[in-house]
Amino acid sequence: MKVFGIDIIKGSVRSRTRRPVYALCRVEDGEVQGVEEVTGFRLQRLLAAEQPDILAVDSLQEIATDQRELHAFLQALPPATKLVQVTGGEKKESLGKVAARYNISFNRFDPYAEARTTARVASLGAGVEVIAFENTTDVVVSRHRSPGRGGWSQNRYVRKIHGGVMQKAREIEARLRGAGLDYEKKETKAFGGYSRVAFRVVAPRDMVPVHSSRGADVQVRVMGRQLDRIRFEPLSSRPRYLIVGLDPGTTTGIAAVDLDGNLVLLSSSRQMTMSDIVEELYRAGKPLIVASDVQQMPYSVEKIRRAFNAIPYTPKQSLSVEAKYDLTAPFSYTNDHERDALSAALDAYRSLQNKFRNIAKRVGPGFDLDEVRARVLRGQPLDTVLADLQGVPAAKKEAEPEAPAPERPVEDERVMALDGMVKRLRNYVQELQEDLRERDREMERLRQGLRRARSATERKVRRDAELATKDATIESLREQLRGERRRSRRLKKRLERIETVAKIEVSEDYTPLKVLDSLTREGVRNLQEGVGIAEGDVLYVPRAHGWGRGVVKDLAGTGVRALVVGGGPEEPPDPNLVRVAREAALPLLSAEVVRPDIRGRTGAARTAAVEEAIGEWEEEQKEFRREQEAERVEYLFKEYRSEREKEVRRGG
Fold first, then answer.
1. Could you give the count of Cα atoms lying within 13 Å of 474 in the half-sphere of its Cβ?
2. Of 12-26, 368-382, 556-570, minimum mean pLDDT range
3. Residue 391 has what DSSP assignment?
């Protein structure tokens, strides 16, 4: 197996001026062939010429800036070359951690060392394959040049181009039939042949016996159909080994760490059965050790250990709460059951750390440390494990001469009959296998149709959701616009009324009046919001019905100069209102005397009439004060005389 490993020395794929320069390492059958410096263009040429099995990188950002460029890069790779990211797929980890699993150390500041390490760990099975295409390939045969307007020989020239497209399409169709591949063909007829022929082949790109090419008149493009989302598939299907800690009870706690002490799984539940626990552990990896936090392993934990044929571990004495807190301090957990399970797993890992260090010292680079550790813990000697991983027993087995098979007597009729039966059964097996392959192809076609239908449905759902969100936003903005327009109209009317009042105030012959709808708090608030009430204003109220003592006092407190009350001679002002107004020192004028001219929310009255009415009110107010003072003195005199009579009667 040939592996290319690359790492950027300088430059970047995001830069237009400094294109990247890579360190390229070749590894063939586990042996490093050499390291060199190449540009991106030179790398593409080498990949097309040597067609390695794997191109390994530690980050996809070193070869493409986005998904579109990554698809273009994968399209340019040879069909048999896999792109492998050695640091993982969705959940990435550092190259140092990956290399440590194979006991490989390197200088992370040296691009050549990183390229060498990337290639070596990829050849050992580390990393994930980047898959961006479906198992369907598009082959398009089209014109390589445009006929143009032409001259006398234009028709002959066009027939030559379209005939070349038709001939090339027939050659490709014959190859696809010869390979036994299913395909769909779409032809675009033109003068003298075809201008374009498209094949949709139900097979991955590496199985299609056609390659992209360009001729004088005809070009062929072979493209894999892109997936909606890039997938990552591990190169190695072997699950990782785990050290599992369990805390049984009403709430079951599960914890699992790998052989390097990294947390892999931590959960707890009140509704987990034995089969649920086994299934969750099976999804996480392969339990090598099952541990408990008590000295005597519980029966339920023992049953799970037997299900995986794992190595049991129990502490010499049950772990105390303080020891559990110390062990689990670097980790976060949600309850005591998770803490107990995690402390059991970490205690088992801590007891094996020295042994793991000794194994790492004795094992050379290039071996899977997890596999070596697991076999040694199972009881195999280290030398036997290393020899087995190097393939020595297999070599010895191949060197042994095979014993000659005993000859079978041809004359035996029974043997001949059995030979015939075997031939018939083999033919039947071949027919069944062909039928099975046909069913697999049909199933793959149906799956692709289902994926396309799901993709179209998901796009429609997303589009409908976006449209609903935008419609709601538009409706909200329209409502805000209507509210702002109403507010603008109110402010415009208020401005017009204020301007009217201001024009009246400029005149010396007339005094502006502000119309109060009713002598209530609601009427005062509406006037305040509409025109405003300022000190020295003269207010006009058509009718004084529903007045209150507090409203009169509030108006007097704002500094209003006077209050004009409407009504005719048959409807005189309420005497109580007049008394409250005199107590609050708020001039209460009669509309019959002032004779205001009211227009909407504003009005005006002659200044002389207003001044005269206010003067009369003030004269009457002085008389009212004198009467109040006389009443007060008379009240005091009566009070004094009453008290004096009481004293005389008491004194006899």
1. 6
2. 556-570
3. T
DSSP structural state of residue 58? S
Judge contact between 135 and 231, C-beta under 8 A.
Answer: no
Q: Looking at residue 409, what is its pLDDT?
A: 42
- Is residue 594 within 8 A of residue 507, CB to CB? The reply is no
Alpha-carbon gap, residue 295 to 581, rounded angstroms: 96
Range of weakest confidence among 241-245, 303-307, 474-478, 581-585: 581-585
In this structure, what token pair is assigned to residue 505? 């105030």
Burial of 32 (0-12, 13-18, 19+ CB in 10 A): middle
The overall pTM is greater than 0.90: no
Write out the DSSP string of 288-352. EEEE-SSSS--HHHHHHHHHHTPEEE--SSPPPHHHHHHHTTTS--SSHHHHHHHHHHHHHHHHH
CA distances from 285 to 231, 278, 475 (A): 20, 11, 53
Each as own residue / partner, the long-range contacts of residues 40-46 (CB below 8 Å, 24 or more positions apart, any chain) are 40/13, 43/6, 44/76, 46/4
Tokens of 160: 């030559």
| Tokens 């429609």 belong to residue | 460
Nearest C-alpha neighbor of 209 from the set 282, 139, 105: 139
DSSP 3-state of 242: strand
